Amino acid sequence: MTLLAFDWALFIEKLVLIAVVIFGSLGIALYSTWAERKVAAFMQDRIGPNRAGPLGLLQPFADGAKLIFKEEIIPNSANKWLFILGPGMAMTAALITSAVIPWSSHLEIAGRIMPLQVADVNIGILYIFGAVSLGVYGIMIGGWASNNKFSLLAALRGASQAISYELAMGIALIALLMLTGTLSLKEIVEQQMAPGHYWNIVYQPLGFLIFIVCIFAECNRTPFDLSEAENELNMGYHQEYSSMKLGFYLFAEYVNMFVASAVMATLYFGGYDVPFLNESLLSPNVAALVGIIALMVKIVIFIFIFMWVRWTIPRFRYDQLMELGWKKLLPLALANMLITAIVILWLQHK
User: Fold this and answer.
1) Is 160's pLDDT higher than 50?
2) Which keywords describe this protein according to UniProt (predicted)?
């Protein structure tokens, strides 16, 4: 009876959606490497990749083939199993974060309603924080298992950086949750789409500024890439890695950048909402397609901002990194939370 009651159609739908999200994330991460080189070339008045395929579009595949066929080296003094586990954890944590992101409304296929969200849990934001925290273990395990003092120093930097900036980011999100009253990402998007409501960036501009700075630190992107300081720590925590283990660390950074952009678009910029468009006038499938395109446009804009900042702002010193996190962002996040609470109480008693 239990087997007969099992909804195999729903199971297959979720498997297909998971596969699309995972391979889509990997594909965007792959071509983010090409886009980063093109953005850097544009800002430095160069051409960028232009040999592998038209406009260099096959360059990511050439880089991937190089990593796949490169010789696999594991140092004799390394802890073999943890050395393998580190990049695996980094990539896994980057991919599972996208499970609660609503990519659009829903599709209607053969009379079935298919939500374009892997899991609509009522604690979606807490899930994202938990998944992001696992990525720090990938850095720490990789740095420690290499049995290299430079890798260990870089891993310690990365862990302390993540702890420092997650605090300010969490407090900035508390102010947003006070306004929305929910932890579900789907409900947060629907609130922003409701008539008479605006995107959350209108209500929380300071909170968004704090959040995006902390996201840069969480993704180890310049100017917060202290755990990968090549000129200080000999390539950082993945110094001893080669072949696809190194590739996993590098791709995990770009997957994190893609997922972080999706989270920012969802929380502060309406997710898959298109401004001044009444989605109810469209058929469900057309509205879903329009929503996906709208969300992807927002994600691409954020990814460009990541790359623009990387090639514009130099890397901070470590003391500057800690001072910004603890003495600047944390007090600002606390002040933003208190001001938000006061305004909400004032409006309730008005």
Assistant:
1) yes
2) Cell membrane, Membrane, NAD, Quinone, Translocase, Transmembrane, Transmembrane helix, Ubiquinone
